């Protein structure tokens, strides 16, 4: 099997005839096949991937220039539409539903000659942190199969972790790319809100959702971001002011010293934070200072409000977004006879949705209801506004914030599935970036004494993915060696 390192290296190997796309795809198909127990894929597009590989090999032999993602093998989360392919959001309500069109992000990958190898398992409608809420059953963490891979984009993370594709797409509404990347020991990037088009993404909470990227090197992640960040008039919330950045140029203007970082006292000393994870972050802080960067401690008084604000706002948006699944126009339709239309909707939705999705629809409907709107929804909006103001202040003084991704490393299957609040609380460090729309990344820098990986989260200012990539590269290359706790 081809030993993939980076896209640049792969392209070199293709041009020198050391490998070809068909061989590479065959290798990944074999890997997917032999790792079936991990349950990372919902569907594998075998024939199609091989055909595209063959076509690309022929074009190359004919002397055609290589496009940016020529033959790059990518998997996508089962909430991202790809025309003519099933997309189900890992839900019974969308069983066998076929995409009518491709998401803009997917189309941009295809336009650059990427090969989409399959769709990946996830939590139902991207609601969850463990991949245990999927109609297809859980995905297993390849680092230790007794443990969850994280969620909701667990399948996409494991597909990269276990070398079943080169890179993959997930979505991050409250941490669903960064947290599974953290638990699986790979890179997970959530771009800022509006950087990648949401057109063709099955909505969970529209003012939070973003397509994110899983990979193993900063350069590859930057390349995918560059390709997918093209302004798209089909998503009116996209940042269209500036043309897409040349994200792959991050190295040209990177500094190895002199960045200004901060971290929050309340996060590092939070009682839920595993001490070894805190130690890893402190070691990074020391390494950064030693390399000539400024790292300062800041206060973050709002920490305890962010998880409640996130769950009020996202469930409210979800209750509205998911009202379209009524079993009439499409989706699961009950076989039971219904007395009237209301009973019909109720049957379709009761049978089609899983437990966690139902919980969130009900919670969201409750916080939006007339009597409670001010007490919950409005209050959460106020918290969101305060967080945005807080970050504006922070980024007037600093280039980046460093923080944990998750309070703990991956947990065991079944450990928290009866306690949704405990699972929600574990989102404490990731939902901040979504509430404020900032770009953030999880970098695989550490290994815990329990044998599991964990990472460091870095967050930069609005629309500043470029600085995020520069800093990530610096951390992955220089600081990694020095920062071992
Ligand atoms: N764990 C979070 C939730 O369940 C994040 C989900 C996501 O980012 N899609 O809402």
Task: Please tell me about this protein's structure.
The protein is an alpha/beta fold and 485 residues long. 40% of the residues lie in helices and 12% in strands. The protein has an 11-stranded mixed beta sheet, sandwiched between helices. Strand 10 and strand 11 form a beta hairpin. Helix 9 crosses helix 16 (465-482). The longest helix has 25 residues, at 373-397. The mean pLDDT is 95. Bound molecules: glutamine. Residues 126-129, 152, 171-176, 204, 314, 427 line the site of glutamine.
Which sequence of SSEs, written as H and E, runs from N to C? Answer: HHEHEHEHEHEEHEHHEHHHHEHHEEH
Q: What class, by secondary structure content?
A: alpha/beta
Question: How many β-strand stretches?
Answer: 11
Molecules bound to protein: glutamine
Could you estimate the helical fraction of the residues in percent?
25-40%
Q: If strands are numbered along the chain, what order do they take across the biggest sheet?
A: 1-3-2-4-6-5-10-11-9-7-8
- How many helical stretches? 16
**Low-confidence stretches at least 5 residues in length (pLDDT < 50)?**
none
What's the N-to-C terminus distance? Answer: 35 Å
Overall outline: globular
Q: Could you describe the largest sheet, including whether it forms a barrel?
A: 11 strands, mixed
Radius of gyration: 22 Å
